[in-house]
Design goal:
The chain has about 140 residues and is an all-beta fold. The protein is about 0% helix and about 35% strand. It contains no helices and 9 strands. It has a 3-stranded antiparallel β-sheet with strand order 1-4-5, with no helix packed on it. A two-stranded antiparallel ribbon has the order 2-3. Strands 6-7 form a two-stranded antiparallel ribbon. The protein is rod-shaped, with a radius of gyration of 25 Å. About 0% of the residues are buried.
Length: about 140
């Protein structure tokens, strides 16, 4: 931030009521104040970001003359997980349809494929009895 008097700089995660926990050793705030200048440089560093860290962060500079802010979006990528589902046995009789579902959570979105007997349905197995639908 630039200003006279030199502004104080604060960081916050937009939409969160929890204060940025710099004492966790994963979040670090650094300020570089240039002497003989009105410039203060502030850096927010998140070490080993996790999915809950994703979101919009705002840097706020405030002095007696006013307030100014800038925001930045943090996207945390992670591989697919199936943590909230159970795959159980499904039964069908008299050739009644049966549905199997699978929901992968990831950033970016994962692509899903279905396999039976070591062969991919829709690629190696082109059988009208198998239908794959995306949600």
């Amino acid at each position: 931030g630039r200003g006279v008097p030199r502004p104080s700089i604060h960081w916050r995660k937009i939409g969160s009521k929890v204060k940025l926990a710099t004492e966790m050793h994963r979040i670090e705030l650094n300020e570089d104040i240039k002497t003989n200048s009105e410039v203060t440089h502030s850096t927010l560093t998140i070490f080993s970001p996790e999915p809950p860290d994703a979101g919009l962060y705002e840097c706020i500079a405030v002095n007696e003359a006013g307030r100014h802010s800038k925001s930045a979006k943090l996207i945390v990528e992670f591989g697919p997980t199936f943590e909230s589902q159970e795959m159980d046995v499904q039964w069908s009789w008299d050739q009644k349809p049966v549905s199997l579902s699978c929901v992968a959570k990831s950033v970016p979105d994962a692509s899903l494929t279905w396999w039976v007997g070591g062969k991919q349905i829709g690629r190696h197995i082109l059988d009208k009895n198998f239908k794959i639908r995306g949600l």
